[in-house]
Amino acid sequence: MPIGSLRQQINRQARAALFDVFCGKCAYCESFVDVSSPGEVDRFRPFTDATDLSGSGSPDHYVWLVAEWENLYLSCSVCSRAKRSLFPVEGPRAEPLTPFHFVRHHERPLLVDPCFDDPADHLQFSDTGHVQPRSHIGDVTIKVLNLNRRGLVSQRADTWVRIEAALTRDPNQTFEALHGPDQAYAAVARTAYQAFQAQDHAELRPRPFPPSYLRQTPIETRSADEILAADEEAFRLTARPLRSVEIRNFRALRDLRLEFGEPGSEAAPWLMLLGENATGKSTALQAIALALAGALEARRHTKPVKVLSDGAYKGFVRVWFWDQDTPAELTFVRDDERFGGTMRPSAIVLAYGAMRYAERRARIDSSLRPTPRFTLISPILQPIAKIRYPMAWLLDLDEKPFETAARALQAILPEAAGAVMRRTRSRVFFEIDLPPRKWTGLSRSAFHLGGT
Question: What's the predicted TM-score (pTM) here?
Answer without folding.
Answer: 0.68
